[in-house]
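FAQ: What does the model actually see?

It sees only this:
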Amino acid sequence: MLMPEPYKAAHDAYLGNYLSSGIQKVIGQSRNVVARRKDGTTFPIELGVTETFLNETRFFIGSVSDISFRRKAEAELRIAATAFESQEGMVVTDPAGVILRINKAFMDISGYTAEEVVGQTPRLLKSGRHDDAFYAAMWASIASTGAWQGEVWDRRKNGEVYPKWLTISAVKGDDGVVTHYVGTHQDITERKKAEERIKELAFFDSLTHLPNRTLLLDRLKQAMTAGNRSGTFGAVLFIDLDHFKTLNDTLGHDKGDMLLQLVAQRLAASVREGDTVARLGGDEFVVVLGSLNKTAEEAANETEAVGEKILAVLNQTYPLGDIDYRSSASIGATLFRGHETSIEDLLKQADLAMYKSKTTGRNGLHFFDPAMQTVVVERVALETGLRKAIEGNQLLLHYQPQVVGAGRVTGAEALVRWQHPERGTVSPAEFIPLAEETGLILPLGQWVLESACRQLALWAIHPDMAHLTVAVNVSAQEFRDPDFVLKVVAILNQTGANPNRLKLELTESLLVDNVEDVIDKMSALKARGVGFSLDDFGTGYSSLSYLKRLPLDQLKIDQSFVRDILIDPNDAAIARTIVALAQSLGLDVIAEGVETEPQRAFLASSGCHAYQGYFFSRPLPVVGFEEFVRRV
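And it is asked to produce this:
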């Protein structure tokens, strides 16, 4: 027997221990040691030694057994035992599906003890969510391939239904006959929650939990496909909340978020179960109605009924924390059948119809009209043209005289005009709102201010014109620009205009957002000599608490009060109140829209002695304005 060191030493120690024990046996002790084969490899053996006497002569008989196979089998059993008690639940059944054994992980997952399930079948765990066909397919796969795995919903002992990943493997004997089934059960509840969260982030709005644009497009596509099969119409409703920005600006974004959540709940409760309510973003929502009538007229009637229902529920009071808030919505609707119109075009049509509701007074419903598309095309062309007009020489300023007393000219309001090369003169009422919506108001406003300041500098060198002031309208977007003050100062320095002759006209809409910033910017320009007039006074915010803090020079009575000042007692009272307020605050006051001598006389009797309007002059090109000044 060849034994490597230190294995030989172990063998010798064993034999020495045997001899020194003094025990005389026919069958002695045995020990496991390691031996070496002829090729040098080692292997475990069981070494046994027995003692016997023959003719009073002692003999030792040694037995050697190769225990490699037994060691391997023992190791595999230990591995199997360890694996069986892993983190995954395991169940062993006989060929009939009767449970023979479960591990601790399965007890933790299911809530059952071994005593409660051994002898039962896995049917004990059924949740009821899978039909017979599901289980038939499962066992067919096991019969043909020897295994199956997939997602299953089971029921715990406490009645809770949960998802798990189940793997079933058939154990076969040497004859190929199934002797056992082994099932591993992995609780995937947390994984499913994570998947649902990921799905929610990808397809649902985080604030309202409504479908987002991505899921909306998919649902709309499904509705179009269904309508194509059935021949029925569907409808898209585009919903925009009225005055939502004002709510955010005055009460804060937290109240705005509360309103959006309540709106989402009311919309979802106003439609059928198969319809879709989605949030596009901001205060814009879309409703998709499917499977309406097969005739366009009846489908439109059904859509209108849903729209009116939505308007009614959205017009009810909303509890926003400690306040009750009233809101309304503007809705645009368009019908579709099958895939006759693309998804993007449907959304555009509904959006256009919604804007029609906005322009006709809000809190209403309008259907898309093909004529609206023509308006949109013209609008896009107008926007493109306005960009070119700002960059080119298509804009010019007209000046409307501002007078005191019987007609002495003290200054003018600069009013921009657009001379379109093809359309002729474009009304400011048409392109100024467009500039506001597209952001073009910023370069447009800068052009107006630069042009007016250059004209001021030119008038300063003519004695008969040097006393004139120029009023320039400034939009809220311009004033909110962080660099607004620097830009105004740069223009004054560049043109050489006298800042004491420049008057900036602001609107009350500025006062609903960051009043402290407004005051800081006004004060900075006021320190350089620039004056300020509050335009359209009385038509907007009109907060006296802010008014007394603003570094104003003048209040301007809006023409809407002047127009009916002789026949409407309310307008007359408002005009007199504005005059009195201006006097109490030490401010000048001017009335715009004065068109008749009786209007001027009434204003004069009320204490207003500065005017602007057609009674004195229309807005004039610079040459005509200069002639008017010299003439009067």
